[in-house]
User: Fold these one by one.
Assistant:
Number 1:
Amino acid sequence: MIPQAKIKPDDTRERIMDVADALFRRLGFAKTAVADIAGELGMSPANVYRFFPSKNAIVEAICRRCLSEVDERAWAIARSRGPAAARIERLVLEILAYHKDNLLTDKRVNDIVLVAIEDSWDAIQAHKDVIRNVTELILRDGIEAGEFERVDPTETSRLLMRSLVAFMHPVLISQCLAGEENVEAEARTMVRFVLRAITPRT
């Protein structure tokens, strides 16, 4: 008899997250119980609780995974070539597109986002730190190239994030989408408007 490969705990955690995410999107967060998740996986609820202490903990893990995907895309943009202003615009549009495509398809998904925001402060703060660091790196490149004035890149990155939060925060994005605005065009206009404040006058 060929021995079965042992399933790694991390693989089981990923399977639980995948199934939970699908059920949350299909049934809604409130209507999905841990027993439903366990049933889809062919395991007992007690086994799910071995990996996650609560349903909210599963949401938090899904939140961390989603934000890590955004972080990877952000670093890829920061390390790419091209004018700094164009990279900052790409960064904002990439974050906007990710939230639109993955987190804001309907009210049930938006409910998951609200739970994640409420319960995942550490993950969200770490994500905000990554985006600020990415923005600061791009700003430093722009300053070095003479594209931007010699501003304080750390403080300026914070100001940029505050100015552009409507296009980077999933709840605020959902409010923009509810108004059926051309959010991408507005984001481009806002990025260019804000960056004019640090662009040398010729």
Number 2:
Amino acid sequence: MLITAVEPRRKALSALFIDGEFAMNLDTQTLLENRFEVGREIDDAELKEIIEKSNERRAKEKALWLISYRDHSKKELTDKLRRSFDGESAEKAADRMEELGLINDEAFARRYAQTLINQKMLSPRAVAAELNRKGIDRDTIDSILDETDVDCRANIRAVIEKKYKNINDEKIKRRAAAALQRMGYGWDDIRAVFEEYKEDY
């Protein structure tokens, strides 16, 4: 197979033409580093290797771009990269970000748990479910929650004060109870706080 043209495209890509036909868009830097130039003869193995190298470089660049915007767990980053790249390239990119210290599941989990508890007012049970969804292992989740002191009833009060002014109205109370249960709070705590509001009126 003969490389007959290499034409620049957007987003640091170049179009590779083989035997006069467009073959694919690949990472420009990878093509240059591997001397994929017009007039070079290549075989299937070389083409396969350059595709893998291109995908790996582009996956790493995408990973850097994603983590520049916000924290990610390793699983979350890998899953996002899989939407654009093959599984192996996505995993290698996430592994590299971890090696460089740019992602750290335990540090991510601690920060994310605090956000879920302090800003979203989720219960420890809901926080555990969210962390699990992000790919955090059970031991890390348990360790973080063991160190985190959450006053469930205080959080329930805060949610009611913020979102449900007339909590003694039955319709509002039902809506609040459903929302609080979705946030992971148990019925015993919800009912106890509702009782406090009854006494206030």
Number 3:
Amino acid sequence: MLAFALCMDAFAVSLGIGAKDKNIAFKAALYFGAFQGIMPLIGFMIGKGSAEYIASFDHWIAFSLLGFLGLKMIHESFKKDGNKENFRITHKTLLLLAIATSLDALAAGFTLIFLDSSLYVSIAVIVLVTFIFSFLGVKIGAKSGKWLGSAAEILGGIVLIGIGVKILIEHIG
């Protein structure tokens, strides 16, 4: 579920990319998948060194981070982007989009410390799900335009908030 939630930003951006260039699906999926895998690993490594000091309130940190990111995704879904017409899809553009859409994965990587799952399996699933959704996003965007974009971000935000609530309930209850 975390992989699905994290890939929604990349999926939404991929829809827009597809509306501009239907032939870039593999390249976009590669960029987005790679950065969605790198960022949680970095977040995990940063957080791992401090895990022993925060064990008593770790669930609140995970809940706060995921809740904030979920609300941010929902808020962002309502924003209008007036620059879409001048949007050029270059390697630099894909790199910047991949970084921007994976910042939530950096924070989510910190929360992986507190989940009872393998780091490498989690990252592999995040990469695979993001790659597939980004690839499909470009293809769908090429066919259907941008009408799914904000709905995908809203759903991703709701899922992130849900995961945060689940973590909090598991540790409190």
